[in-house]
Amino acid sequence: MGDGMNTTSLTWEIARAGGFMAYGLLSASVVIGLVVSLKWRSPRWSRYITTELHRFVTLLALVFTAIHTVMVAIDPFIQFSLPEVLVPFVSHYRTLWIAMGIVSSYFLVAIYLSERVRRFVGYEWWRRFHELSFGAFALALVHGIASGSDTKTPWATAIYGGSVAIVAALVLVRAFPPTRERSHPIPAAIMIAALAVGGLWAWSGPLQPGWNVIANDGHGSGGTAPVAAAASTDPALPSATPTATPGPAQPFADTISGQLLQADDGSFQLTATLASSHDRLTLRFPSGDAGRLAIRGATVRLVAPDGDACTGSIAAARGNELSASCQGATSGSLWNLSLSLTSDASGFIEGSIEAQPQ
Question: How distant, in Å, are the alpha carbons of 214, 312, 329, 337, 356 from that of 333?
């Protein structure tokens, strides 16, 4: 579904590419550092060359981190302010996970600058300080998995899984060297436990439907207004509905599931149900180039069980994430909708929806 609806802005595409490049280069820097510590070298590839390569790769990681940060800051979809991309825990969007990315970038800056003070602090302290690279790697990994829009794609999963596997293997070799050097079982045990916890978290969280609602920490995915009501899939709890809630309109979030079908005229229609409120969501997409879904002219309709409806249009798509607006037929309330959708080969759709009153 992501390919068919992908009309992402240039800034977001650059931000995505910059983020993955930064993560890949950071992973490479950690791997090279481990290779240096293991003293693996050949007569044709001296330690000096490996060390200089390590510094250069770290510098490139910083460059692409800066590109990623700038593009995210100027991208119009999330509307980050400058402090939100520079100060941890200030972001209105996915506060914890964005903070991890910011802290990781600062660790990377500190690691690179440590080369300038090595002669003043001595090798032993420099080596200990350099171990921050593992923290930078772990934080960048969690940041990418938890806040990236490509996490569930096979290629992104392969990048994350492959980098973790390589780093983990080298750490184990470092902990249990084949030579007579002293083993380090405690760091190895800590790493294995962290991998187990991290794998369980990724499988039960970011890789599952509905993560978009959980990851936002109770905040909306667009604009700066916070969502006051947390998402809930428990039918026993009340769920706000944009057209049926009495009094002032209240933000809400829910999970959805449905089916995407193609009509005889080539258009596509998604019919889905909200888990808590049982509202019916209908999205209609004109047929675009090569039979793909088109965003221009796409419509949204959200109907409550009592028949009240909120109708409008889809404004933009970014990968599997959609932004839309609609107006209630009875109340006249205007709503901003954010949807995160995934599909299988049969066209079965599941994901999440968040709504904020304008």
Answer: 26, 12, 8, 13, 10
The reported pTM is 0.63
State in Å, rounded, how far the first CA of the chain is from the last one.
28
Q: In this predicted model, what pLDDT tens digit does every residue of 265-288 receive, in sequence order?
A: 778 888 888 888 778 898 988 876
Token readout for 20 is: 């993955």
HEC states along the chain? CCCCCCCCCHHHHHHHHHHHHHHHHHHHHHHHHHHHHCCCCECCECHHHHHHHHHHHHHHHHHHHHHHHHHHHHCCCCCCCHHHHHCCCCCCCCHHHHHHHHHHHHHHHHHHHHCCCHHHHCHHHHHHHHCHHHHHHHHHHHHHHHHCCCCCCHHHHHHHHHHHHHHHHHHHHHHCCCCCCCCCHHHHHHHHHHHHHHHHHHHHCCCCCCHHHHHCCCECCCCCCECCCCCCCCCCCCCCCCCCCCCCCCCEEEEEEEEEEECCCCCEEEEEEECCCCCEEEEEECECHHHCECCCCCEEEEECCCCCEEEEEEEEEECCEEEEEEEECCCCCEEEEEEEEEECCCCEEEEEEEEEEC
Please name the CATH architecture into which domain 252-357 falls.
Beta Barrel (2.40)
Residues ≥6 apart with Cβ < 8 Å to 172: 188, 191
In the chain, pLDDT over 90 holds for what percent of residues? 26
| Token pair listed for 295 | 């965003």
pLDDT digits (tens, 9 = 90+) for 196-234: 999 999 998 888 766 765 665 433 333 333 322 223 333
Distance of CA 68 to the CA centre of its chain: 13
| Contact between residue 306 and residue 244 where contact means Cβ atoms under 8 Å apart | yes
Q: List the one residue out of 347, 306, 348 whose CA is nearest residue 328.
A: 306
225 is written with which tokens?
Answer: 């207004």
- Distance CA(212)–CA(227), nearest Å, equals 13
